[in-house]
Amino acid sequence: MTGAAALAARFRRFAARECAGVSPLYEALGRAIAEDDRLLALAAGARPGQPATSCRGSRQPCRGTARFASTTPSP
């Protein structure tokens, strides 16, 4: 498995195991990043500890951001 493939798998696991049912926003972001080569390249250059690896284990859980997923941005 290449580095990009491993990172994509990590984002898919993050979306499915950590965020599903907890944060629709982070679940969608994790899945989208896993499918986008440019975003994977950006994530590959992140500092240690980034990108986030756990919604459930953080001090501020992902579920606190879910309320933003359904809002419509103003023009």
Chain-wise SSE layout:
Layout: H1 3-19, H2 24-34, H3 37-44
Describe the structure.
The chain is mainly α and 75 residues long. The chain has one domain (3-59). Helix content is 48%, strand content 0%. The protein has helices spanning 3-19, 24-34, 37-44. α1 (3-19) runs antiparallel to α2. The longest helix has 17 residues, at 3-19. The N and C termini lie far apart (43 Å). Mean pLDDT is 75; it is low at 63-75.
> Would you count the extended β strands for me?
0
Task: Provide the gyration radius in Å.
Answer: 13 Å
The structural domain count equals: 1
Question: Number of helical runs?
Answer: 3
Question: What separation lies between the terminal Cα atoms?
Answer: 43 Å
Global mean pLDDT: 75
β-sheet strand percentage:
under 5%
Can you give me a brief rundown of this structure?
With about 80 residues, the protein is mostly helical.
